[in-house]
Amino acid sequence: MTEMPAPRMIPALAHPAGAAAAEVPGGATGWSGRLLHIHVAPAASYEMEERAEALCVAGRGIEGDRYFAGIGTYSAKPDVREVTLIEQEALDALARNDPPLQGGPLRLAPGDHRRNLTVVGVPLNHLVGRRFRVGEVILCGGRLNFPCKYLEELLGMPVYLPLFNRSGLNCGIERGGLIRPGDPVALLD
């Protein structure tokens, strides 16, 4: 069996955003969240598949995901994208048309947004440059995720502006392991 070459990833704290944030204390503390959903796509543009558990591998990503294999849409551009997360609260806001930047409410199912993990009670915008735990896995926030026109094209929905500044977090994996929906999410530092 041929070993698949590792994708070109930037360590979370080597990314300019992650490095700068790690030098500045602050951000939300005292919260506790939970992992709701795990999704992977076997190749770029493929439909996301929900998983009951997933193996996270440091330096690679989630086993079975396109970015783990180095065949994601943006894999040719080295970046922090071993694992991507989005807040359920952002999806809830879109569903109630908040902010009212589109013609009405947008309902995104957990697999529609193309992030790997959907979490609740986790202030993702505060986790750039921070380490946190999802179950037994330790993640490090590298940079905020930007919405893209590619997602709008795939979904056929005007999600670019409503997801601006709440499109999730791109993370590196510091310590791998298995994760499952229901796992607690907590800040480490």
Written overview of the protein:
The protein has 189 residues and is an alpha+beta fold. 12% of the residues lie in helices and 28% in strands. It has helices at residues 16-22, 88-95, 149-155, and strands at residues 33-40, 49-51, 54-57, 61-62, 83-87, 117-120, 131-134, 137-144, 169-175, 177-179, 184-187. The protein has a 7-stranded mixed β-barrel with strand order 1-6-5-9-8-7-11. The protein is globular. The mean pLDDT is 91.
Defining key terms:
alpha+beta; seven-stranded mixed barrel; three-stranded antiparallel β-sheet; 189 residues
Largest sheet strand order = 1-6-5-9-8-7-11
N to C succession of SSEs: HEEEEEHEEEHEEE
Query: Residue-averaged pLDDT, rounded?
Result: 91
How many strands? 11
Given as residue ranges, the uncertain stretches (5+ residues, pLDDT < 50) are none
CA-based shape:
globular
| Structural category | alpha+beta
- Rg over C-alpha atoms, rounded to the nearest angstrom: 16 Å
Largest sheet: 7 strands, mixed, barrel
Helix content: 10-25%
CA distance, first residue to last residue:
40 Å
Task: Tell me the number of helical segments per DSSP (H or I, 4 or more residues long).
Answer: 3
Measured by DSSP, the beta-strand proportion falls in: 25-35%
